[in-house]
Amino acid sequence: MSALAGNLWLAVLLGWAVWGVLSLGLSAPWSIVAGLAVGAVCAFGLRETLALRGIVAVLGPIGVVIPLLALRQMAGVLGVPVQPFGTVELLVFLAAYLVFLAAAMGALPAEIYRLGYAPLWVAGIVLAICAYGLWQGSIFLPALAVSAQLLWVLGWGSSNYFDHILHVGLIPAVLIVLVARVF
Please, which residues have CB within 8 angstroms of residue 27's CB and are 6 or more apart in sequence? Predict the structure, then answer.
């Protein structure tokens, strides 16, 4: 079943990329439907090609955060109300994530990454993310935390919870959003 989840996430990411190109000439509903259809055909029909295997190798483990952010952006374009992340939230996330990565690589004397293997710690992290999301009035963060926990419990993908909710690709994405807000 892990392969199914991986193919679904790949389909969403490819669909999001195709939608981005198609949206230059098509209306939002048509470009999103066409993008997701092309993404699904590629992910499920052409998965073993060199190009798609390369994308999976570069992005892996994909987890759920990047595909959910892509779906969130497409839903926003379709008119679903999407609460943007605040500048302070993004700055705090960026600083905390950089510290987390430094610790995971051994540059700091903390072993935060290993907490992603411990069920009680994961439960606490999920509850904290859900509480923060609900406090902010956002359904995205609780949906992210719970769906990642479900995949983690089922053993679909990485055996570390952090691999499901975080991705190094978030760093440039957050930096781009922050820079765009300045200009």
Answer: none
Query: Tokens in use for 6?
Result: 């991986």
Is there a cis peptide before residue 61, judged by omega within 30 degrees of 0?
yes
> What size, in residues, is the chain?
183
Model-level pTM greater than 0.90? no
Is residue 129 domain-resident? yes
Q: Render pLDDT for 90-134 as a digit per residue (tens, 0 to 9).
A: 999 999 999 999 999 999 998 899 999 999 999 999 999 999 999
**What CA–CA distances, in Å, run from 33 to 6, 21, 23, 30, 73?**
20, 13, 11, 5, 14
- Out of 77, 101, 132, a domain closes at 77
Per 3-state DSSP, the chain is made up of helix, strand and coil in percentages (nearest 5) of 75, 0, 25
**Cα(142)–Cα(147) distance, integer angstroms:** 8
Structural domain including 120 reads: 87-182
Query: How far apart are the C-alpha atoms of 50 and 48, rounded to whole Å?
Result: 6
